[in-house]
């Protein structure tokens, strides 16, 4: 839910950024949110097993 | 204990490889002339697509083995591979429109590659929802295995979509200059290591959770 909100915000920022660097930043921010978000999810699940 | 140690080592190697990749992407790889800086999304977009094919193939394989041998470990492995594969499908599906909006002026085009890839995401989302809302019994595991097997048939369709039906936005062949090629090879390795760390961790969690559930039933 939260990551969906963040991704929508990033896309909204990307629309308003006229150059390709803005889209590149939005793309890498999205990659970071998804991969770090999943890492955090796994870490929380692993911690519950201790 | 040995598995846990391997997971920690794999995470450390994957983190280092991704740090090197990011350094290469932003300092070594040149900016593409036509598309500009946004083309750098390529270094995670394409490896994520290739890795998701590998993970979904493993999910397909373990689902067949589960239905054939009826061993719970294959179900655990299939679930883990599908979940990690879904994460990488999502990376591709989110970064693609951002790249496309900058390079082609459109967020989305209903062309065969994109449409079949969206169908892939929807089918594996259905698989994960099925797992999430089922009771974890043998029957729902078998239904999930059938869904994973059917869903995998979309992978060759996605892969061959451009050759079979053409594409408005995707090129048939990508030619990279040496610096871009080396960066791509390193990013491919880094994403592969990250996917391996995800898959191994998720499998370990699945095994441990199953053990706990068995212990609770035995009490």
Description:
The complex is a heterodimer of chains A (50) and B (219). Chain A is mainly α. In chain A, 88% of the residues lie in helices and 0% in strands. Chain A has helices at residues 2-16, 20-48. In chain A, helix 1 (2-16) runs antiparallel to helix 2. With 219 residues, chain B is mainly alpha-helical. Chain B has one domain (2-218). Chain B has seven helices and no strands. Chain B is globular and about 65 Å long. The chains are: A mainly alpha (50), B mainly alpha (219). The interface between A and B is medium-sized, with 23 and 30 residues.
- Amino-to-carboxy terminus distance of chain A: 27 Å
The whole-number mean of residue pLDDT values of chain B reads 93
Largest sheet of chain A: none
Rg of chain B is 19 Å
Summing up helix and strand content along with how strands pair, one would put the structural category of chain B as: mainly alpha
Specify the number of helices of chain A. Answer: 2
Give the oligomeric state.
heterodimer
Mean pLDDT across every amino acid position of chain A:
81
Helix share bin of chain A: over 70%
Are there runs of chain A of 5+ residues with pLDDT below 50, and where? none
| Helix content bin of chain B | over 70%
Total helical elements of chain B? 7
Q: Descriptors for this entry?
A:
heterodimer, A: 50 residues, mainly alpha, 0% strand, B: 219 residues, 7 helices, globular
Please specify the SSE layout and strand pairing.
The complex is a heterodimer of chains A (50) and B (219).
Chain A: H1 2-16, H2 20-48
Helix pairs in contact in A: 1-2
Chain B: H1 2-28, H2 42-69, H3 72-103, H4 112-133, H5 138-152, H6 154-165, H7 178-218
Task: Give a short overview.
The complex is a heterodimer of chains A (50) and B (219). Chain A has helices spanning 2-16, 20-48.
């Amino acid at each position: 839910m939260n990551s969906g909100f963040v991704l929508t915000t990033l896309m909204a920022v990307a629309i308003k950024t006229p150059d390709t660097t803005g889209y590149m930043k939005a793309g890498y921010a999205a990659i970071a949110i998804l991969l770090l978000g999943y890492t955090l999810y796994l870490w929380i699940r692993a911690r519950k097993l201790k | 204990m040995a598995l846990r140690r391997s997971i920690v080592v794999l995470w450390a190697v994957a983190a280092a490889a991704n740090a090197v990749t990011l350094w290469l992407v932003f300092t070594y790889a040149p900016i593409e002339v036509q598309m500009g800086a946004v083309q750098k999304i390529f270094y995670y977009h394409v490896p994520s697509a290739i890795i998701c094919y590998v993970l979904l193939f493993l999910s397909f394989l373990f689902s067949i083995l589960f239905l054939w041998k009826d061993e719970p470990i294959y179900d655990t492995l299939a679930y883990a591979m599908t979940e990690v594969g879904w994460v990488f499908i999502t990376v591709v599906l989110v970064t693609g429109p951002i790249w496309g909006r900058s390079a082609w002026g459109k967020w989305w085009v209903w062309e065969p590659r994109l449409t079949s890839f969206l169908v892939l995401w929807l089918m594996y989302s259905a698989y994960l929802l099925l797992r999430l809302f089922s009771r974890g019994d043998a029957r729902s595991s078998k239904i999930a295995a059938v869904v994973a097997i059917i869903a995998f048939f979309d992978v060759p369709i996605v892969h061959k979509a451009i050759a079979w039906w053409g594409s408005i936005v995707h090129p048939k062949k990508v030619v990279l200059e040496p610096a871009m090629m080396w960066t791509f090879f390193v990013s491919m390795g880094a994403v592969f290591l990250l996917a391996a760390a995800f898959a191994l961790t998720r499998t370990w969690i699945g095994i441990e959770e199953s053990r706990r559930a068995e212990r609770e039933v035995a009490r």
